[in-house]
Amino acid sequence: MTRVSRDFANTMQKEAVPAVSADVMFTSSRFPNYKIGANNQIVNGNDDPKVLTMKEVVARETAILLDQQKRLSVRDLANKFEKGLAAAAKLSEEARLREAASLEKHVLLKKLRDALESLKGRVVGRNKDDVEEAIAMVEALAVQLTQREGELIQEKSEVKKLANFLKQASEDAKKLVDEERAFARAEIESARAAVQRVEEALQEQERMSRASGTQDLEELMKEVQEARRIKMLHQPSKVMDMEHELRALRIQLAEKSKCSLQLQKQLAMSKRSEEKIPNLYELDGSEALGSYLRIKPSSDYALELSSCSIQWYRVSPEDGKKELISGATKSVYAPEPFDVGRILQAEIVYDSQKITLTTTCAIDPAAGLGSYVEALVRKHDSEFNVVVTQMNGVDHPSESIHVFHVGKMRIKLCKGKTAIAKEYYSTAMQLCGVRGGGNAAAQAIFWQAKKGVSFVLAFESERERNAAIMLARRFAFDCNITLAGPDDRSPLGT
């Protein structure tokens, strides 16, 4: 049996492998350590897992830019876009170099496969199997390289798109920076002009104040001199004497008014006695706004008023037209602002007989009430301290202080910060003086905010009660609403 020596095999291999062309460039000094994996895939055993592919680098940079876009200023964003554009250009250049390297790899693989095919025909036995295995590995490597080239082409297109996007974004950012800079310059110029106008206005005002200050000082000196002259002419003692005299005259006038009223009542009683009309009842009280009138018996033969039917009326002094005051069916009635200038009349019916009591003259207005109301009209909202005595026709035992707001558009009743009732002026709202209530009637009002919600409120004084009624009717009239008392079907407080 002939034995093949090792030297012969090496000699055959050296003669079978042709020399590699001198123009071929190798990226490494040794052949890569490839392995065949699953599905005949070639795996590079020397790949570093820490090395990122170009696609992953582009995706990471894009994510970082999108994440920081909201937090960067316009100028920083423009710089980032320029850096991203440079990185994209660099990646594009790397892709071009890798494409050239890929082409060189194809040439190398083709030459290697040709060499192995030439060697395959010269060897036999186990060496031939090794050569066939090497050829299979080269073909698998060629397939892997082709797939890699496809991925490289796709990455190249994505890098090109990203480069175009970053370039356009960089141009937009520069344009935005220029617009913002121009806008800021315009704002600065406008602010400078406004400051200059303010400075000129201040200087003009200062000049005018200096000129007017001298003139005001001269006028003030003249007024002081005139006041001194008046003070020398009118000594304090004389002024005090005049005030005392005026007070005495007012007291005398009030006494004479009461005396005149009493004489008028006596005259009316004497006329009735001449007409043989029994004087069983009479009206007692001042016939002026802020007071109250009371029907009282004037004879021992008079029946109790609780067993009689009472109704109050308003009578116009010009034409004698009589108007029923709805709800005024008690022996006490407090005139309200609507009664000023009219005569009040009370009819008492008992045992099919009727007695009519009439005021001697029209109801007089309260002194100073008109000017007080005019001062309140200039306010947007006037407040009055009140106590709720009735709520929805039921007595309210609490005596806590509430605040009654009369505004230009609505009326509100509050307790502290809590609004108990708050309604705009409407036809359903009613406001008038309480038709009854004894001595406190002159300080109380009836307010129906809306249907089913009503209050009887007691004020601190007659003046505030009448002012609140006049003010609310004035504001309601401005809203084209007539704010009056209730109709005959509405219950009133007693």
Topology of this protein?
Elements: H1 6-16, E1 34-36, E2 42-44, H2 54-68, H3 74-120, H4 126-233, H5 236-274, E3 281-284, E4 293-297, E5 309-315, E6 322-324, E7 332-333, E8 343-350, E9 353-358, H6 369-377, E10 381-391, E11 394-395, E12 401-407, E13 410-415, E14 418-424, E15 430-433, E16 444-450, E17 453-459, H7 462-478
Antiparallel strand pairs: 1-2, 3-4, 4-7, 5-6, 5-8, 8-9, 10-11, 10-12, 10-17, 12-13, 13-14, 15-16, 16-17
Helix pairs in contact: 2-3, 3-4, 6-7
Organism: Acer negundo
Domain Stomatal closure-related actin-binding protein Ig: 281-378
Domain Stomatal closure-related actin-binding protein PH: 381-488
Keywords:
single chain; 494 residues; alpha+beta; eight-stranded antiparallel beta sheet; four-stranded antiparallel beta sheet; 7 helices; elongated; disordered N terminus; disordered C terminus
Describe this structure as you would to a colleague.
- The protein is α+β, with helices and mostly antiparallel strands and 494 residues long.
- It is built from seven helices and 17 strands.
- The protein has helices at 6-16, 54-68, 74-120, 126-233, 236-274, 369-377, 462-478; strands spanning 34-36, 42-44, 281-284, 293-297, 309-315, 322-324, 332-333, 343-350, 353-358, 381-391, 394-395, 401-407, 410-415, 418-424, 430-433, 444-450, 453-459.
- The strands form four sheets. Strands 10, 11, 12, 13, 14, 15, 16 and 17 form an eight-stranded antiparallel sheet that branches. A four-stranded antiparallel sheet has the order 6-5-8-9, with no helix packed on it.
- A hairpin with a 2-residue loop joins strand 12 and strand 13 (410-415).
- Helix 3 (74-120) packs antiparallel against helix 4 (126-233).
- The longest helix is centred in the middle third of the chain and has 108 residues, at 126-233.
- It is elongated.
- The relative contact order is 0.06.
- Mean pLDDT is 76; it is low at 1-31 and 488-494.
- Residues 381-488 form the Stomatal closure-related actin-binding protein PH domain.
- Residues 128-230 form a coiled coil.
- This is Stomatal closure-related actin-binding protein 1.
